[in-house]
C-alpha cells in the first residue's frame, strides 16, 4: 500500500463532477481500488490518528474481495482549507453523514468518517480496459473517503486588523456540552506570554506591526485541553495621526459676574509627537487665546452676564489638529447681599451657641455674615451641658422654642437665642448585660452596667441579682456574682447621679439549672499521624491517624476527638471523617467511640482519615480527647 501526501485538492474537485457508477463485481473482473482519504484538523499540535481509519478501509476492502492498489491521503490544516468541502453520497444519490467507522459521533467533536463501507464511497472514476497480457478485462475504481477533525472551541477576536497599537477583545466559546473548561489560555501569537482567565474573555494590545496567529485553549478540571483554530491578526504600521483630546473641562461653568473660569484641555499625540499649541475659543471674542509648550490650562474672566460656548483646538508638531466638544458657560448678573447678625444670652457663650448650615456662623465667636438675596439660612441653637434652649427673639421669634430656625435673607436680619439653666435630670441606663444569662450551678456571671447623665455625672451603680442576695455596689458598673441556688431570677441595675437622682434598668432574666454531665479531658490518649498526602480525585490533602487508649482504663462512649490549631480548614464532602459538631470554642469534633460502645485500655483505632482543603501551607494541628459524663 502506498501512502502519498497530496498538496492540492484540485484534481479531486474535478473528479467530483464525474458520473456515479455501480459497485457490481463480476467473476471475470479483476478489480483494483484507488482510495482517496481526505481529512482536516483544527488542533495545531494534535492532528488526527489515521491508523484506525486506514486499517478499517483495508479490512472492508478485503471483505469485498478488492485489491487496494493505491491509497492517497490529502491533508489540509488550519490556514487554507478547500472550499467547498466534500459531501457524502450514498447508493441511491442521497446525502448525509450517518456512517462512522471510528465509533465516534458526527456532532462536530472528534474525528469521524463520512463513509464506513467501501461500497458506499463516492466514485471519482470507474475505468474498465482490456489487459492483453492477462487476456481479460481489468476494472479500476477510484473512490473518495472523507473524514474530519473538528474542534469544539472557537476563538472570536475583534478587531482583527488595524494600526498599531491594536487593542483587541478575544472571547473563547465552547460548543461541546460534554467538555466544561474551568480555565482558558489566550496566545496572541506575538511571542508574548499567554494570558489566562476563567471565563474565556481577554483584552490584549498588539504593539508591533505584523501578522500573527492567535489561538485559544480551554482546560477542564482534569487538565485535559482543546485548542481553537487560529485567528489571523494583522497589525498595520501606524500612519501620521492627529492629536487626541483626552478631556476638556471648565470650573466653574455657572456663576455671577465677574466670573473667573479655569479651562483644562488635556491632550496627547498618538504618534509620539509634541503638542505645539492650544487655541482657546471662549465665546466672548471672535479671536482665540493661545498657549504653547504643553500648557494645558487657561484661566479667563467673564465680566458680562450671558451664555457663552467655549472649546479648545489642539495642534501637534506635524501641524495636525483636533477640536474638543463645546462647554456652555452661564454668567449671571451680580446680586444683592444682606447681613445676618446673631446674638446669644448669656453673651459669654458658656450656656450655649448658635451655628448655621452654611458653616460660617458659630456665635458668640462668629456672629455676623452676609448672604445673597433670597438665601435660606438654617440656624441651630445648641445648649451646653446643664442648660436648655429657652427660645428665639428678633427676626427668629416666629420659631419660638424650636432649636432650628430658617431665616430667608430678603433683608438684613437679626436673631437672638436665649439659654437657661436646666433642672436636674436622673441618669439614663445605656447598657445593662449579664453574661451568661443561663447555666448550671454554681453559675458565675459577669455584669456590666453603663449609664449617662446629661446634666451631671454618674456617681455609683448597684446590682441586684434578684435571688435575695445583698445588692452589690461599684463606681464603674462592673460586677461579678455567683448564683448558688437553682431558679429563675430577675436581675436589675440602678445608676445614681451626683445629685442622688437614680434610674433602674429593665430586668434581665437569669436561669440557673442543676449541674449535669460534662465533657472531661482524657489523660493518656495518644495518636500518630501519617505524612500529609494529596487526593487528586477529591482535590484535598489528608492524613491517616492511629489513636491509642493509654489512659489506664477502659473508656465508655461517647468519646470525642477535638481538632485544634489546624493550619488548614477541613475539606467538606471528602471520603474522610466528617465533624459531628462544633465545640463551644468553635473547634470541630469527631465522635470516635459512640454511646453504648467502649475503647479498652491499650486498644488502637487505626487508619482514621482526616481531609483538609488544598492550599499552599504546611499542615499542622493538635488533637484533644474528651469523655462525656459527670
Strand content: over 45%
* Structural domains: how many: 6
Mean pLDDT reading: 80
Q: Which segments are poorly predicted (pLDDT under 50) over 5 or more consecutive residues?
A: 1-28, 35-50, 67-120, 146-150
| Largest sheet properties | 6 strands, mixed
Structural class: mainly beta
Estimated radius of gyration: 46 Å
Distance between the termini: 89 Å
Please give the share of residues in helix.
under 10%
Question: TL;DR?
Answer:
The chain is mostly beta strands.
Task: Pick out its properties.
Immunoglobulin-like; disordered N terminus; six-stranded mixed sheet; flat; mainly beta; 630 residues; 6 domains; 2 helices; 53% strand
Written description of the protein model:
This protein is mostly beta strands and about 625 residues long. It folds into six domains: about 5-150, no CATH class; about 155-235, Immunoglobulins (Immunoglobulin-like, Sandwich); about 245-330, Immunoglobulins (Immunoglobulin-like, Sandwich); about 335-420, Immunoglobulin-like; about 430-515, Immunoglobulins (Immunoglobulin-like), CATH 2.60.40.10; about 520-630, Sandwich (Immunoglobulin-like), CATH 2.60.40. Helices cover about 5% and strands about 55% of the residues. The strands form twelve sheets. Strands 1, 2, 3, 4, 5 and 6 form a six-stranded mixed beta sheet that branches. The relative contact order is 0.06.
How are the elements arranged and paired?
Elements: E1 3-6, H1 10-15, E2 30-40, H2 51-63, E3 67-76, E4 110-113, E5 122-131, E6 136-150, E7 153-158, E8 161-163, E9 166-174, E10 183-187, E11 195-197, E12 201-206, E13 210-219, E14 225-227, E15 231-236, E16 244-251, E17 254-256, E18 259-268, E19 275-281, E20 289-292, E21 297-302, E22 306-316, E23 321-323, E24 327-332, E25 337-345, E26 352-356, E27 362-363, E28 368-372, E29 375-383, E30 387-394, E31 404-409, E32 413-421, E33 428-435, E34 438-440, E35 443-452, E36 458-464, E37 472-474, E38 478-483, E39 487-497, E40 502-504, E41 508-513, E42 518-521, E43 525-529, E44 533-535, E45 540-549, E46 555-556, E47 559-564, E48 581-582, E49 588-593, E50 598-599, E51 604-613, E52 622-629
Parallel strand pairs: 1-3, 2-3, 2-6, 8-15, 17-24, 25-32, 34-41
Antiparallel strand pairs: 4-6, 5-6, 7-9, 9-12, 10-11, 10-13, 13-14, 13-15, 16-18, 18-21, 19-20, 19-22, 22-23, 22-24, 25-28, 26-27, 26-29, 29-31, 30-32, 33-35, 35-38, 36-37, 36-39, 39-40, 39-41, 42-52, 43-45, 44-45, 45-51, 46-50, 47-49, 47-52, 48-49
Amino acid at each position: 500500500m502506498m501512502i502519498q501526501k497530496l498538496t492540492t485538492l484540485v484534481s479531486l474537485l474535478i473528479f467530483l463532477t464525474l458520473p456515479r457508477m455501480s459497485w457490481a463485481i463480476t467473476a471475470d473482473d479483476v478489480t483494483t481500488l484507488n482510495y482517496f482519504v481526505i481529512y482536516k484538523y483544527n488542533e495545531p499540535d494534535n492532528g488526527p490518528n489515521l491508523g484506525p481509519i486506514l486499517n478499517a478501509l483495508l479490512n472492508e476492502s478485503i471483505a469485498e474481495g478488492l485489491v487496494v492498489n493505491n491509497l492517497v491521503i490529502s491533508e489540509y490544516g488550519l490556514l487554507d482549507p478547500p472550499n467547498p468541502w466534500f459531501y457524502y453520497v450514498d447508493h441511491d444519490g442521497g446525502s448525509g453523514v450517518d456512517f462512522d467507522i471510528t465509533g465516534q459521533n458526527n456532532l462536530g467533536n472528534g474525528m469521524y468518517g463520512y463513509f464506513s463501507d467501501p461500497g458506499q464511497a463516492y466514485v471519482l472514476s470507474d475505468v474498465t480496459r482490456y489487459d492483453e497480457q492477462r487476456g481479460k478485462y481489468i476494472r479500476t475504481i477510484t473512490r473518495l473517503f472523507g473524514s474530519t477533525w473538528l474542534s469544539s472551541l472557537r476563538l472570536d477576536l475583534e478587531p482583527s486588523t488595524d494600526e498599531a497599537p491594536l487593542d483587541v477583545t478575544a472571547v473563547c466559546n465552547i460548543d461541546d456540552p460534554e467538555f466544561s473548561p474551568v480555565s482558558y489560555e489566550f496566545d496572541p501569537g506575538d511571542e508574548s506570554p499567554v494570558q489566562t482567565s476563567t471565563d474565556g474573555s481577554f483584552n490584549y494590545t498588539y504593539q508591533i506591526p505584523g501578522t500573527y496567529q492567535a489561538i485559544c485553549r480551554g482546560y477542564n478540571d482534569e487538565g485535559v485541553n482543546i485548542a481553537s483554530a487560529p485567528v489571523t491578526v494583522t497589525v498595520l504600521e501606524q500612519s501620521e495621526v492627529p492629536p487626541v483630546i483626552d478631556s476638556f473641562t471648565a470650573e466653574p461653568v455657572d456663576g455671577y459676574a465677574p466670573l473667573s473660569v479655569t479651562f483644562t484641555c488635556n491632550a496627547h499625540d498618538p504618534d509620539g509627537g509634541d503638542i505645539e499649541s492650544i487655541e482657546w475659543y471662549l465665546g466672548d471674542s471672535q479671536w482665540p487665546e493661545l498657549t504653547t509648550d504643553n500648557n494645558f490650562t487657561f484661566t479667563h474672566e467673564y465680566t458680562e452676564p450671558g451664555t457663552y460656548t467655549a472649546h479648545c483646538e489642539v495642534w501637534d508638531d506635524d501641524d495636525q489638529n483636533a477640536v474638543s466638544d463645546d462647554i456652555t458657560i452661564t454668567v449671571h448678573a451680580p446680586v444683592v447681599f444682606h447681613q445676618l447678625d446673631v446674638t446669644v444670652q448669656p453673651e459669654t457663650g458658656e450656656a450655649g451657641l448658635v451655628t448655621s448650615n452654611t458653616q460660617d456662623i458659630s456665635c458668640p465667636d462668629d456672629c455676623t455674615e452676609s448672604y445673597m438675596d433670597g438665601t435660606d439660612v438654617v440656624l441651630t441653637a445648641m445648649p451646653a451641658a446643664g442648660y436648655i434652649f429657652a427660645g428665639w427673639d428678633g427676626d427668629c421669634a416666629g420659631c419660638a422654642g424650636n432649636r432650628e430656625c430658617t431665616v430667608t435673607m430678603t433683608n438684613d436680619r437679626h436673631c437672638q437665642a436665649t439659654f437657661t439653666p436646666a433642672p436636674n435630670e436622673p441618669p439614663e441606663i445605656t447598657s445593662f448585660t449579664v453574661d451568661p444569662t443561663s447555666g448550671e450551678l454554681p453559675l458565675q456571671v459577669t455584669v456590666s452596667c453603663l449609664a449617662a447623665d446629661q446634666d451631671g455625672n454618674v456617681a455609683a451603680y448597684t446590682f441586684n441579682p434578684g435571688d435575695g442576695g445583698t445588692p452589690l455596689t461599684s463606681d464603674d458598673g462592673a460586677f461579678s456574682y455567683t448564683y448558688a441556688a437553682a431558679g429563675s431570677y430577675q436581675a436589675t441595675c440602678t445608676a445614681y447621679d451626683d445629685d442622688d437622682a437614680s434610674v433602674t434598668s429593665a430586668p434581665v432574666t437569669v436561669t440557673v439549672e442543676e449541674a449535669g454531665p460534662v465533657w472531661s479531658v482524657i489523660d493518656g490518649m495518644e495518636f500518630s499521624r501519617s505524612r500529609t498526602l494529596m487526593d487528586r480525585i477529591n482535590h484535598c490533602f489528608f492524613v491517616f491517624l492511629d489513636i491509642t487508649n493509654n489512659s489506664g482504663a477502659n473508656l465508655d462512649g461517647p468519646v470525642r476527638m477535638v481538632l485544634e490549631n489546624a493550619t488548614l480548614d477541613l475539606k467538606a464532602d471528602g471520603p474522610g471523617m466528617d465533624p459531628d459538631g462544633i465545640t463551644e470554642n468553635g473547634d470541630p469534633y469527631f465522635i470516635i467511640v459512640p454511646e453504648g460502645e467502649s475503647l479498652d485500655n491499650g486498644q488502637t483505632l487505626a487508619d482514621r482519615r482526616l481531609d483538609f482543603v488544598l492550599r499552599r501551607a504546611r499542615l499542622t494541628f493538635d488533637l484533644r480527647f474528651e469523655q462525656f459524663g459527670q
